[in-house]
Amino acid sequence: MTARNVVLVTAATGNVGPHAVAHLLDAGARVRALVLRDDPNIGRLPQGVEICYGDLAEPDSLDEALEGVDGVFLMWPFFALPVDTAPAVLKKIEAKARRVAFVSSVGVHIGLEPVDNNCHAYIEHLLERTTLEWTFLRTTGFHCNAMGFAAQIRTGDVVRYPYGEATRTSVDESDLAAVGAKALTSDGHARKKYLVSGPEELSQAEQVRIIGEVIGRELSWQDVEHGAARQAMVDSGWPPSYADGALDYFATLTKEPEVGSNVVEEVTGTPARNFRSWAAERADAFR
Ligand SMILES: NC(=O)c1ccc[n+]([C@@H]2O[C@H](COP(=O)([O-])OP(=O)(O)OC[C@H]3O[C@@H](n4cnc5c(N)ncnc54)[C@H](OP(=O)(O)O)[C@@H]3O)[C@@H](O)[C@H]2O)c1
Questions:
Q1: Predicted model pTM
Q2: Is the CB of 174 within 6 Å of ligand 1?
């Protein structure tokens, strides 16, 4: 890939997208961000990116964004959009691009997520049947998932959530984006299935304790029971099969910590950032 080749980032204004754009720009790529017309979060995107309007639900709307691209940093917004249009979207990508870095999940890596759950494993399955040079970023949870605790921490000292003892190897979303940017702008990553994790094992309750230390307050954890948590997730829009998958996985993580890897450092040359440094950077969101 030459330094000024064009890379399209999907789900560009979410948690990972702006970091992906920033790392790709740093690598010298010309970067396009795919955004919905009424996207309220467009301001999150770094300067220097080209905005392309398009909707993954309408594959033909991607034609302009895909014109002349070499790579796609592919994320599918599973909670907002079913995968019905994914085969047509991948056909469009295959017709134009050479490389794809797809943000997948640790659930696929450990065999917990079946292809017929219409989630990450399904898109991997589709990509494996293309001629694209794909790289799968099978990520653990993101540090920023802890933003889910923020509203409770701002208004009290107790976080009520399921499975406080679930121990994860969460990754900084910027580190994940950096791995994907490398995969799209350097050689040697085709057909690799990377397990991307952070550098440490921390339970959810430990994450909350660290947030408390960072903001100078003593915080505690109170478990919400599985059934009540499932109902709350479904009520807030989670497809039931995704809620079951997530909660069952969290239950297993109370017995055995999540798997981890050194992929961030191996691929980017920079050690993965720990949760405390993420929390320190985001401290104001918890005050
Ligand atoms: N969080 C985790 O622990 C975890 C673990 C494993 C894998 N992942 C994967 O990581 C990926 C990235 O997650 P994220 O947290 O960065 O995502 P996110 O914050 O939920 O962002 C979703 C993005 O997709 C956009 N979008 C929604 N519907 C769209 C459509 N029809 N067409 C085009 N764009 C659309 C949204 O735009 P608007 O702002 O306009 O809605 C937003 O920019 C996801 O695919 C997720 O499955 C996450």
A1: 0.96
A2: no
